[in-house]
Amino acid sequence: MKAVIPCAGEGVRMRPLTLIKPKQLLEVGGRPILEHIFENLPDEINEVILVVGYLGHKIREYFGDEFLGRKITYVEQPAKLGTADALWRCREFLGTGKFLMLYGDDIIDKQSIAKCLKREFSILVRESEHPERFGVIVADNNGKITDLIEKPDKPISNIVSTGVKVLDERIFNYPATPHPNGEYYITSSLAQFIKEHDVFAERAHFWFPIGTPEDLTRADEYFKALAGKV
Fold first, then answer.
1. pLDDT band at residue 224, thresholds of 50, 70 and 90?
2. pTM of the predicted protein model
3. Alpha helices, H only, the chain
């Protein structure tokens, strides 16, 4: 199975750390964030499609054409057009059948991602103290997702998407509508997709989103402590 990881962003909130290094190569516990993500991919994933843009050559140099036994395909996203645009650029490489999509700046445990792969369609979720920063999920008693709202001003739930999702080629039947900022977000496509397909929420055991320098520091301290380095 293939996994798509968008890594083209400029990491603006991480500046000045990202002025000379892409966000995915910032280190947590002595290793790049993206290396942790590779390490936590389930065994079913045998190929990774990395969508690169800003300082993408540095990601290519570090990971090469194969990393931790998985083939890597690189797809260019030259303009900042959002996560849906990033996925659409991978369409020709995905073919038919299920694939995994996740982001290059969130560290999630392997077992939680593996749970998602057991479903036909799924989104990995977790409670958040700041749901307004994420895509908020509404699900019924069976875990079927009934609504998905991107970064709402007044969240109706504290359950949010971690960015991990299992989809197939049918997602391409639901093009994203442009956001007022000109970008195309996968949340827009998913909001249409869940109206016609059963997508289930699976709860993440461990999720460490890294969006700011403060997040990076906390993650670094956590993983160093885990490794017994502090």
1. confident
2. 0.92
3. 33-39, 56-63, 83-88, 91-94, 110-117, 186-193, 213-226
Closest CA to 223 of 147, 128, 109, 120: 109
Mean pLDDT along residues 107-123: 95
Residue of 101 and 136 predicted with greater confidence: 101
The sign of the torsion formed by the CA atoms of 1, 207, 5, 190 equals positive
Q: Which domains does the chain have, with CATH numbers?
A: 2-208 (3.90.550.10)
Yes or no: say if 84 and 185 are a contact pair by the CB < 8 Å rule: yes
Whether the per-residue pLDDT at 32 is higher than 90: the answer is yes
